[in-house]
From TrEMBL:
Protein name, as recorded: DUF1232 domain-containing protein
Species name: Clostridium polyendosporum
TM annotation in the entry: 41-61, 112-131
The DUF1232 domain, residue ranges: 43-79
Annotated GO CC locations: endomembrane system
Membrane-protein topology: Multi-pass membrane protein
Main location group: membrane
Alphabetical UniProt keywords: Membrane, Transmembrane, Transmembrane helix
Amino acid sequence: MDNKLNKKFKTWFSTIKQIVKKIKKEIGALYLASKRPDVPFYAKLISILVVGYSLSPIDLIPDFIPILGYLDDLILLPLAIAFVIKLIPSDIMNECRQQSEYIFNEGKPKNWVAGGIIICIWIIITSYILIKII
């Protein structure tokens, strides 16, 4: 029984690892696609927002909030990535995927601009709540 459970856990962990690698590759491909002149402006703009948010050191919903904290990482981010991929022509996306193979080898770059925007949003929300309470 224990061996069967251990095997299921290893299979599940391996699947999760593959999904994370694929998402990292897609983020790299979206970053590269956002720099190309043959990608439509609206796709570039949304791509930059998604990549910036994914690389931001700060989440819109902080991870310490039970369940909801991981909602953006597990559901919202993959949905946003899938949406942007549909906006970019498939041949361009395939080229960018090939180029993004090694983009995160040196570690995850930080996007402090997106982090600053998220901090500003939280400050505005907190200020609004404090003003209503006082």
